[in-house]
Amino acid sequence: MSNVELVQPMNAEMAKQMTEKDGFIAALDQSGGSTPKALAQYGIGEDAWTTDEEMFALMHEMRARIIKSPAFTGDKVIGAILFERTMDGEIDGVPTAEYLWSKKGVVPFLKVDKGLDEPGNGVKLMKPMPGLDGLLERAVAKGIFGTKMRSVIDAANPEGIAAIVAQQFEVGHQILSHGLMPIIEPEVTITIADKAEAEDLLRDEIARQLDLVPADRQVMLKLSLPSVANHYKPLIDHPRVMRVVALSGGYSREEACAKLGQNDGMIASFSRALTEGLSAQQSIEDFNAMLDDAVEKICAASKC
After folding, report:
1. Less Cβ crowding at N or C end of the chain, within 10 Å?
2. pTM value?
């Protein structure tokens, strides 16, 4: 990363919360490809909509229900990652990011990637993002603090992992130039046979890139729960890292929380493991009780 001037400074109060406060980040950023699966998990089948707009409207209702729940506050949920359509939507007439921060005390992030490219060298890079600058400008205007972008590692291939980390940090440079905090997410698929070897390569590549980040900048990292406990501790302790968060990656909530609890300084950023057990058919009381139980368990695993 080269040293470029920020368009505007980051929100200091949000930065303080993300740096110091106990809690975890809720990943509410399912996109077009993963939305039907997320809705099915929530008890809404594909026969409930006929167009993408109707599907995304149902997804927004689910996210709004989660965000409005008394279980979902900045006391334990310190941040939330939003899908672009969610950022552009409203909750009770208030823009979603503004609602999160002003009503709930939750720092808003935005998923900015456009999905995965075709596989090569054991990885799936991010698709090109030609409209990224425009999206980042809109995010700043809407009060977003940071961004998230995902790519995937499917094998311990040194060339592929070097390329995936280089791409993540290149885009991170662009995001930083808009005054936003990038969450860099090179996910390691949890089912691959050489997962531990891939994690060795990934840790070393990230460390190399972090050493190139200017002294007055930081990034965040979102990583798969490692095969060896505290494998990413050197990254957690790196001065260029604001926070390291863990994705659940297909583990159940119980499995993900157990693994997370073994990693000092790592907090959760769960999606499926957060919404597990929630249903559109639940009463308000049952829904809130189920979400409260999930928040408590994930927070405990994040050592808050």
Report:
1. C
2. 0.94
